[in-house]
Write a structure and sequence with these properties.
single chain; 262 residues; mainly alpha; two-stranded antiparallel sheet; 8 helices
């Protein structure tokens, strides 16, 4: 069973200014920090540009490759280029995750939940298309006994053209996902919001979710337990990080004061 506090002095409501102020993090009093934008637009735009470049390479090689040279070379070159693009996408994904973690540390907990999963989708798409191209390559070698002869056929039905068609679909999907991500980041950077823990409406909502009805230790199954626990975990991480920063600042000030005394 749960523990109930029916005393009105213990209840926490939206109108309780004193209670909400008491539950504000102590570090909030010194956080007049400068807004730090999320600098991921350039790097993820570069990923989209590279995706378009892979498509251009596949199309151009398929069109202008000389007849007297190996006709399968454009197909294999495109596969190599796409593999290199996957490596770049991995680096971009690591960089974006690091930037998202910094946003979380800075206290933008709700925006982190919105953007973190979205920022990982481009890399998942590239990984999926790597698997698709692997299956496509396997099918070609399984169906055609003389694969190199198939590369020399006239018309559209050449392996490199099929490869280009699949890369067109990949690039289109990536463009939609990346443009939506960029719009979210630009809107966030332009609005320059304060950290969630310093926004009164966010704290009031958090307090109401945590102590609705004056109950502690019991929640109905229909409540958003997972969202609440995730919000609490994010808040704890933020406060721990702020506490570590403040402790470091206090230690530096103490050393400075000791140096001045001596």
């Amino acid at each position: 069973g749960g523990v109930f506090f029916n005393d009105s002095s213990m209840s926490i409501s939206a109108g309780g200014d004193d209670d909400s102020q008491l539950l504000q993090p102590v570090c909030g009093t010194d956080v007049a920090q400068k807004f730090k934008p999320l600098n991921t637009v350039a790097v993820i735009t570069l990923e989209l540009f590279l995706s378009v470049s892979v498509l251009v390479v596949a199309v151009v090689l398929g069109v202008v490759w000389p007849q007297d040279m190996d006709r399968c070379a454009p197909y294999f070159i495109t596969l190599y280029v796409h593999a290199a693009f996957w490596c770049v996408s991995l680096i971009v994904d690591r960089h974006i995750k690091q930037k998202h973690h910094q946003i979380r540390v800075n206290g933008y907990l709700e925006f982190y939940q919105q953007i973190h999963g979205h920022g990982q989708i481009p890399f998942y798409i590239v990984c999926l298309w790597n698997a698709v191209l692997l299956v496509l390559n396997t099918v070609f070698h399984h169906l055609y006994n003389d694969f190199r002869q198939q590369c020399s056929v006239s018309g559209f039905f050449k392996p490199v053209n099929y490869l280009s068609l699949f890369i067109v679909v990949e690039t289109a999907v990536l463009a939609c996902v990346i443009i939506a991500y960029v719009c979210k980041v630009i809107q966030f950077n332009r609005s320059k919001p304060p950290p969630d823990v310093l926004r009164e409406e966010w704290m009031i909502s958090f307090i109401q979710d945590s102590y609705s009805g004056g109950e502690v230790g019991y929640r109905e199954c229909g409540d958003h337990i997972s969202d609440l626990l995730e919000k609490q975990a994010d808040l704890i991480r933020y406060l721990k990080d702020r506490n570590a920063r403040l402790s470091h600042k206090i230690m530096l000030l103490s050393r400075q004061m000791q140096g001045e005394r001596t």
